[in-house]
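Protein 1 of 2
SEQ + STRUCT:
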Amino acid sequence: MITEDLTALETWAGALLMKMAPTQRRALNRQIALELRRRQSQRITSQRQPDGTGFIPRKPKKDLRGKAGRIKRKSQKMFTKLRTAQYMRIATTESQLAVGFFGRIARIARVHQEGLTDRVDKHGPDYKYPARVLLGFSAGERDMIRDSLLRHLTP
């Protein structure tokens, strides 16, 4: 359903975008990409998937021995560094835009996005991570793209 909505949006916007100059298209793509990154980061902060459901909570750690003087926190938020602009990057040209994780971080994000199996530590056990969709389009983000395009085209 999401891919159908994006295809319809692309078909509708394609003709309008081709009438714009390449520099204007690049500026619009950058503006939309920055807004998408901000929204994705906010959604990850609130621990929500694009469809509005919550992330599967982190498995509680077993405290076999306990450390002296340690301050215990109730629960740590997942992906605190991953959602920053340093790791969630944008790439734009006049014909496309991308918001995602690149490099070494991309592997970690992909494991969580698709729910794959990975090693916990370098020499540690394998663990099948539950799927937590980090990047995706919600209905509000599709509306934001459409509204940004219309705002840019109307004086």
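Protein 2 of 2
SEQ + STRUCT:
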Amino acid sequence: MKSVGKHISRIYRRLNILISHDFKDLNIGSGQYLFLITLYENEGINQKVLGEKLLIDRANTTRAIKKLEQAGYVKTIVDTADKRNKKLYLTKEGHGIIPAIRQVLVKTKITMLEGLTEEESEQLFCLLEKIEKNVEKGIETMKEVAHE
């Protein structure tokens, strides 16, 4: 029997190898670019919202932000209206590496889609979106059953 999950998992692991190699000089790991891109698009959000947007748990989000702060790419500023809320921003260096990150992502996309027609690429994205929605629906159903 063919396994969709197996192929998705294998693609994900191999992509991480490619991306990690290209991000080595930027001093970031394959998962940290997601935080940087998301912060670039949503500066001033807090850590909880950032983790929710990326579907990453609190502990892993905390670790990633700490590493990015140590690397000089992210800064945390306490909200003056609510001292418990800490807002996240990219530093000058964080903003500076966004073009390099985007370049790596474009290169990776080209590698992934090599040999596919534009129609096949569009169909692939549609199918992946459907699969993602189905999995999300499955998780919601699981949660509903667990609360009964």
